[in-house]
């Protein structure tokens, strides 16, 4: 089974529509929040609310069983304030080291939360940074931002067969 994951489109409707046209036969479509345009353009998508979404009807989280994986979907901003406060006092770290520590702590919090929800996989967005990492027994997958990302705009194609999961990270030029 193959799935298209996107996040943080921030109003980039044309780019989003062009991408969807490239993948008409996926088994599922997921948007991890911060849409920025009418939801009617994403009718085939499962969508969670991001911190910039004004669509209050969108859920904060969704859960699915895909193959033998228990998947939690969320935007990923749940632990922002807590994580930033923990890292801000570490002024002895360089900017790059501070960002790495911030991401490590965020992954730890997301992993713990995902396990508490009875899931083994998390699809999330928010950071605009692509990742597919195994962290404390939880697979964390962030497709990046379709509008702009740290290393270019991005999305992910996720393939799940039974318990096996593989995410192919795709990049596009930033706008």
Integer tally of domains? 1
| Number of β-strand runs | 10
Instruction: Describe the global form.
Output: globular
From N to C, what is the helix and strand string? EHEEEEHHEEEEE
- Content of β-strand: 25-35%
Q: Which homologous superfamily in CATH is the superfamily? A: Metallo-dependent phosphatases
Instruction: For the record, give the distance between the C-alpha atoms at the N and C termini, rounded to a whole number.
Output: 31 Å
CATH class: Alpha Beta
Average pLDDT, all residues: 90
EC number: 3.1.4.-
Enzyme class: hydrolase
Family: Belongs to the metallophosphoesterase superfamily. YfcE family.
Organism: Longicatena caecimuris
Notes on the protein architecture:
- It contains 3 helices and 10 strands; from the N terminus they run E-H-E-E-E-E-H-H-E-E-E-E-E.
- It starts with a strand and ends with a strand.
- The protein has one domain: Purple Acid Phosphatase, chain A, domain 2 (4-Layer Sandwich), CATH 3.60.21.
- By secondary structure, it is of the alpha/beta class.
- The chain is globular and about 50 Å long.
- Pfam families: Metallophos_2.
- It is an enzyme of class 3 (hydrolase).
- One of its GO terms (molecular function) is metal ion binding.
């Amino acid at each position: 089974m193959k799935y298209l994951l996107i996040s943080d489109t921030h109003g980039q409707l044309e780019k989003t529509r062009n991408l969807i046209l490239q993948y008409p036969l996926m088994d599922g479509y997921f948007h991890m929040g911060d849409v920025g345009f009418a939801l009617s353009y994403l009718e085939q998508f499962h969508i969670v609310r991001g911190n910039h979404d004004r669509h209050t009807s969108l859920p904060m989280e969704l859960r699915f069983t895909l193959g033998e994986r228990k998947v939690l979907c969320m935007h990923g901003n749940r632990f922002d304030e807590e994580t930033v406060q923990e890292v801000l006092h570490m002024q002895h770290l360089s900017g790059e080291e501070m960002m790495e520590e911030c991401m490590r702590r965020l992954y730890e919090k997301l992993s713990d939360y995902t396990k508490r929800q009875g899931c083994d996989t998390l699809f999330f967005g928010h950071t605009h940074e692509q990742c597919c990492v195994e962290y404390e027994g939880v697979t964390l997958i962030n497709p990046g931002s379709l509008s702009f990302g740290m290393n270019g705009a991005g999305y992910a194609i996720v393939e799940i067969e039974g318990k096996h999961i593989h995410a192919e990270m795709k990049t596009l030029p930033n706008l």
